[in-house]
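Lecture 7 notes: from sequence to structure.
We start with the chain below.
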Amino acid sequence: MSKLLLSWNVNGVRAAVQKGFLEFLRDVEPDVLGIQETKAHTEQLGDDVLHPEGYTGIWNQAKKKGYSGVATFVKDKPAFSTSQFGEDLLDEEGRIVLTEHDGFYLFNVYFPNGGRGEERLKYKLDFYKRFLELANAYRKKHPVIICGDINTAHREIDLARPKQNEKTSGFMPVERAWLDELEANGYVDSFRAFHPGEAEWYTWWDMKSRSRDRNVGWRIDYFWVDKALMPRVTDAFILRDIHGSDHCPVGIRID
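Predicted structure tokens for the same chain:
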């Protein structure tokens, strides 16, 4: 029986709830949903959001309020979960939840945005490097799936205006090189595996310029799957008709 795994940067879970997030969860019924950029501490949320009906919620929050944060909702309580890895680089901004499922680990990650100056770009690249080491360490026990907002479009096909954005964080060569490295380490961009060469599939649009209306977007949300697991993946897709955030959900089905 296949399982439905989804990932969605909700750009504020409290705002998303006002826009129908819990109804989406109830209607679509994913087996696992990772959300990013929750922008909330658990004491600011009710039980209906922390643990929606039928789900266990595993939350991680930044030390700073109203910033970053991730949560993973799981129908079947995971065999193991953690959000703390013992070092500030990975822990202080509440960016990772790790859960163990049937024969694989799932990392739900909100990767840093490097667009606020050189210091943040360095933080993003340091986080990328250390995270890959972390994922590969867990991979020694079980294959790994990485889902979330990676904040980088990999190739020119993955954004509407590649030439204009070569010096913009999110499409700089140094950021894209890490996705090359992820691929070289044996992780597969599941959407591209099922949709090779298909253009105009994006997951984020700038709201200020109403770019979603014109589909001028970026594909920066992913499921990267350990190649050892890819034979179990039966589909990968983008739910671009789902609104409620400046991102849309992405997903895979896995046997």
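Points to note: The domain at 3-254 is CATH 3.60.10.10 (Deoxyribonuclease I; Chain A). The chain has one domain: 3-254.
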